[in-house]
Amino acid sequence: MPDMQTSATVAPSPIKGGFDEDRSARFSERVVDLFNGAAVTLMIAIGHRTGLFDAMARLNAPATSLGVAEVAGLDERYVREWLATMVTGRIVDYDPATARYRLPPEHAAWLTRGNPVNMAVTAQLIPTVSMAQDAIVERFRTGGGTRYSEYPCFHAYMAEDSGQTIVAALFDHILPLVPGLTERLERGITVLDAGCGVGRALIRMAGRFPDSRFVGHDLCEDALEMGRGEALAQGLTNVRLEARDLTGFAEPEIYDFITTFDAVHDQKDPASLLRGIHASLKPGGYYLMQDIGGSSVLERNLQNPFAPLLYTASCMHCMAASLGQGGAGLGTMWGVELAESMLREAGFDDIVMHRLEHDPLNAYFVCRKG
Ligand SMILES: C[S@@+](CC[C@H](N)C(=O)[O-])C[C@H]1O[C@@H](n2cnc3c(N)ncnc32)[C@H](O)[C@@H]1O
């Protein structure tokens, strides 16, 4: 996976006058590439949701469109059209002599379930945020924002995405960032996940540490309902998922450990949430904030390979969802510089920022309350 590089500033294209014919021709070619990239991304998301990539990886041999459709349990005509996109998009190999298709293992490694990074999960971001396209176009004229209910698949997508970046790495890479945490969780402490969504990280911790108590708050009841079902199915009694608008949240010195996973920048009032988290920790407690690891300075994001994707997610969802609550509209790319200064303003003076190898998109701030 490409790395996020946000510490250096890359010069943007200089602003020039006149009309450069070559530049114009190159640009039109680039736009065609962009169209095709967007189209293939949409179809990668479809390939994930329909299980087509997994079926082709299981096959692990050349097959006709009928063969692929049968293994996937899908309609051949749709599968054939999808395969045509995949062949011309250079995702799937094709033998014209036998009309057989094959997903090469080198590509399957990035597009199928059961791999450490399934990029087909992330491809779903584009169709998910596009669900509110009409509302967003209107907000460009009127200002204001969106409601979470305008993105019907958002919580399911988010749970799947954070399932591979956060939940899968929780015990080996993320929790060990906090000094002494695993031992304290084993002995029994009180934990809050603020903006927990479906709450899979919390549910996983609750299963691993039965002597600790876990609370999750989120604005969206439908996300929590999914999580409650999962906790119930696992017979967990030490996790509580409760709908709550975290604006103005504070429960003084209740919690030993508080987490937010990608859940500060789209809040209505991120600064007050951070102050509330500081107030709600017991002295010596820790706050672990995972958030997008971009830069607050636009030009530093020029060499960040994910920047256009993240600014799009912001405009179409995160910024808009915060503005829709009458909030700050901080945006997905609020950046690590602003994040650190807001953590300090909230009262934290012991802050360490980490980057993790498995997760080039995010930054992890470990903050101790003195
Ligand atoms: C990007 S999602 C992250 C969800 C989850 N932490 C995860 O990693 O899968 C951000 C979450 O913040 C929640 N949120 C936004 N504004 C909120 C508010 N004012 N109060 C409580 N939760 C809020 C949203 O409902 C959403 O579930």
If you had to describe this structure to a student in words, what would you say it looks like?
The structure is a single chain. This protein is 46% helix and 16% strand. It has 370 residues and is of the alpha/beta class. It folds into two domains: 21-122, Arc Repressor Mutant, subunit A; 126-368, Vaccinia Virus protein VP39 (Rossmann fold, 3-Layer(aba) Sandwich). The model has no long low-confidence stretch (mean pLDDT 96). It binds S-adenosylmethionine (SAM). S-adenosylmethionine binds next to helix 9.
Oligomer: single chain
Hetero ligands: S-adenosylmethionine
How many individual domains?
2
Mean pLDDT figure: 96
Helix content: 40-55%
Tally the beta strands: 9
**Termini Cα gap:** 37 Å
Structural class: alpha/beta
What is the percentage of strand-forming residues? 15-25%
SSE succession: HHHHEEHHHHHHHEHEHEEHEHHEE
Q: What is the CATH-assigned architecture of the largest domain?
A: 3-Layer(aba) Sandwich
Topology:
Blueprint lengths: L20 H29 L2 H8 L5 H8 L3 H13 L4 E3 L4 E3 L2 H7 L7 H5 L1 H6 L2 H10 L11 H12 L4 H5 L6 H7 L2 E5 L5 H9 L4 E6 L2 H13 L5 E5 L11 E7 L8 H11 E12 L14 H18 L11 H10 L4 E7 L2 E10 L2
Parallel strand pairs: 3-4, 3-6, 4-5, 6-7
Antiparallel strand pairs: 1-2, 7-9, 8-9
Helix pairs in contact: 2-3, 3-4
Bound molecules: S-adenosylmethionine (SAM).
List keywords for this structure.
370 residues, alpha/beta, Arc Repressor Mutant, subunit A, Rossmann fold, seven-stranded mixed β-sheet, two-stranded antiparallel sheet, 16 helices, 9 strands
